[in-house]
Amino acid sequence: MIKPVIKLNYHDNERNRIMLELQDRLELSRKRNIEKLESMRDSKGTKLKLGIMGGTFNPIHNAHLATAEFIRDKYDLDKVIFIPAGDPPHKKGVLNKFKRFDMVILSTLKNDDFLVSDYEVLSDKERDYTVDTLRHISETYPNEELYFITGSDALNQMETWKEFQENFKLAKFVAAIRPGINLLETQENVEAFRQRYDADIDMVYVPSLEISSTYIRSLVKNGKSIKYLVPSRVEEYINVHNLYGGVVR
Fold first, then answer.
1. Measuring CA to CA, which residue among 29, 73, 72, 30 is closest to residue 51?
2. Pick from 8, 50, 37: which is nearest to 25 by CA?
3. What is the pLDDT of residue 173?
4. What is the mean pLDDT of each run of 10 residues along the chain (249 residues)?
5. What pLDDT score was predicted for residue 247?
6. CA pair distance 15, 53, nearest whole angstrom
7. Do residues 187 and 210 touch, judged by C-beta distance below 8 A?
8. Residue 156 near residue 187, CB atoms below 8 Å
């Protein structure tokens, strides 16, 4: 039986009404998602197509969600599994992983096509690497097709990743092309990865939402509005927990 991991972590004493009211809905969401996956497999009689979207999500915003939904629809994916990074090796000084995880839960709760994995946030490893996470997902869902969704900017840095060649053996890669990225560099890298490592990579032009987590954090720090840039519950969570050094208007 496929059991998508979706859990809220009560690791400290600062949880408030926003977190408490999610408990019943999380249980219903878990039950509904498990039943839906099993029903899908029974009705399809073929492998399920699962999107994997990892990231720091510091914080998650509407462009993340729009990208995931666009690719889910384009490739007819059965589910997209969000995997918030625990301790990302390429980034320093990120927000507490449990708070980032909570915000992803809040953002995806009402969408039955989105699941959230706590694999990396509960990991006791010193660093979390994509290849280890993909191996875990492959073992958890051994009979399904995996589509790893990543930004083209991350793809351009892929040769710096741990055992980067192994990633191509574990999943099909979908590189989301967004404004401001060196398209020629991405095209050259994709072609090189295909030829050298027999990588299965697609480049996909996603809706042009020029939103970044860096921009969100800057707005919050300066007391500016982030309404309609992040889901409303994420905006409220940031305010309640006084994240990113400011108060959201």
1. 72
2. 8
3. 96
4. 44 50 52 59 76 95 95 95 82 84 90 88 84 91 92 85 91 87 84 94 86 93 94 93 76
5. 61
6. 26
7. no
8. no
Distance between CA atoms of residues 8 and 98, nearest Å: 9
Residues 6+ apart with CB under 8 A from 200: 168, 172, 173, 194
Q: The pTM is what?
A: 0.82
Neighbours of 190 (CB within 10 A): 19
> Helix or strand or coil: residue 236?
helix
Residue 99 buriedness (CB in 10 A; 0-12 / 13-18 / 19+):
buried
Alpha-carbon radius of gyration of the chain = 18
- Max Cα-Cα span within the chain: 53
Q: What is the pLDDT of residue 184?
A: 85
The one-letter code for the residue type at 213 is S
Cα 128 from Cα 52, distance rounded (Å): 15
Tokens of 6: 């979706």
Strand pairing report for 201-205 and 79-84: unpaired
Q: What is the pLDDT of residue 7?
A: 42
